[in-house]
Amino acid sequence: MNTWNKRTKAVHAGIRRSQYNEVSEAIFLTQGFVYDTAEAAEARFIEAGEDEFIYARYGNPTVAMFEDRIAALEGAEDGFATASGMAAVNGALTSMLRAGDHVVSARALFGSCLYILEEVLTRFGVEVTFVDGTDLAAWEAAIRPDTKAVFFESISNPTLEVIDIASVSKLAHAAGATVIVDNVFATPVFSDAIAQGADVVVYSATKHIDGQGRALGGVILGTKEFIRGTVEPYMKHTGGSMSPFTAWVMLKGLETIDLRVRAQAATAQVLAEGLEADGTLSNVIYPGLNSHAQAALTATQMGVGGTVLSIDAGSQKAAFALLNALDIWTISNNLGDAKSIATHPATTTHQRLSDETKDSLGITPGLIRLSVGLEDAGDLLADLRRAIAIS
Q1: Residues 219 and 322 both lie in one domain
Q2: For the CA atoms of 315, 320, 322, 326, what is the dihedral angle to 10 degrees?
């Protein structure tokens, strides 16, 4: 399996077949497991074998299949599946930190990630320093000998700044810090984050992994020592585990993720180039455009610009008018879906942030995040152009 390409791993990795030799992965919809003897139960609680399970909060065969498959796809030793993407972010950070620890984080983050760093971790005595994630000098100045972890989104939400994983990881490792990367926008298809230096990779499986708007889920990926020694004890006792049915949905999503995400990224490139050439918007942001500040980094780190672009209509009034004029695009706050989704971050996903913070992050009143789906590129571009003309 180690020689397989990602598309093959996404279909076959991690399969556990029962005695019936089913083709599609089985859903083991059980919360507990039976032991032949009291002695067998005792032995399993002392040390469970590789394919032995105790309780669904600790592990489940269907969940294990998903964990093994996404770990193989990412190039990680192991993974722990969680109830949501934010459970994964919280679990990756909180499981390894304690009062007195120091974390350095990129400032440009999803609103809920900011809440965990600004409110939750600091409440329990963790010191957090925020930096401009694209400024390597800022990272170098902020990372200290006692820094326990660094955290960033490889592509920031929603302004699409691209962080240099290899360079930040080198700085962090020199101080002995663990590198935790939220890699949602890069997707497992285009990600080489672990090979580029990340120690821990976090995904919201709700996004491209499911890819069809059906279920919440997340996953934490890293070394077996970190996942089973640090993450698992925290997650199994605090209850943020993935359900077996959700794991099955995610397994089905992984089977088609390579095809879906590559098609979405290709369409995103067409839309970004078309809208930029039109010159009617105040800004078109897409990592795959030559005009993007990190275009060269994007090309080497991911190879493509991803499935999301952001545009600026100039004002909230114009943004709302544009959104309300769309026919194909759906107004929602998810991303990575088969359906194309338009979001106004300043009033939804990042609404809780102060105006000052929004300004510092580039989340302007006119900014619209566009998550590209699987519809025809020409139809999507025509719909945007018509809505822009009306607004």
Answers
A1: no
A2: 160
pLDDT digit string, tens, across residues 198-219: 999 999 999 999 999 999 999 9
246 and 144 share one domain: yes
Single pTM value for the model: 0.95
Chain mean position to CA 76: 15
How many angstroms separate the CA atoms of 161 and 141, rounded? 20
197 φ/ψ sector (left φ>0, alpha ψ -120 to 50, else beta): left
The letter for the amino acid at 194 is I
> Is residue 88 assigned to a domain?
yes
d(CA 110, CA 171): 24
Name 187's Cβ contacts closer than 8 Å, sequence gap at least 6: 207, 208, 257, 261, 306, 307, 336
| CA distances (Å), origin 239, targets 33, 82, 125, 126, 376 | 18, 9, 23, 22, 41
Distance CA 366, CA 311 (A): 8
Q: What is the CATH number of the domain that holds 342?
A: 3.90.1150.10
